[in-house]
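Most newcomers find our protein records easier to grasp once they have seen one. Sequence and backbone structure share a record, each on its own labelled line. To make this concrete, we reproduce a full record directly below:
***
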Amino acid sequence: MAPPSDPFVARVKSPGGSRRGLWIGVSAGLLVVAALVTVAIAYGFGDGTPEPTPSAAALAAPPTFACGLGADPNAHCADTAECFDTKLSRVDCTGVHTWEVFAYGDLPAGSKVTDKKDRAVTSVCNVGTLVAVNIGAAQWRQDVLLPTPAQQNSGPTTFRCLAGRGDNNLTGDTLHK
């Protein structure tokens, strides 16, 4: 006959529960990554409609620096905010606007990039870079402001990675580093 259990001693749990907890944690992490990828694919880069051509003055980038951990090494960020309206015209960030620049990328002279999904663009303009700038903007829409073909042909140019929450839904600067 077994001795009675001591009511003052806590029972020891078997280590099997910790493995179950590990699997739950790993599964939850994978679900978060899948959700971020789904959001990135769902929002894509714009809706494919033609957009206005930016002026040469709109393409002069402010001084930039590396965006940090999680961002592509070719992504540059600025401590000065840049904002645009629905027609991609530059506007004052203190007022209502649609887009904010979260990163910049460079194209060499003679580039002929017209597709926002070009590898040179998507390596810089992506959710990883956006989250490196502001994790709270992970689910914002993304778009890209490319220089014109003539601007690309004449010299090195800069493209802009844009993020927003919908038409005229932003006030004040949020995404500068």
Summary: The first helix runs from residue 16 to 43. The mean pLDDT is 78.
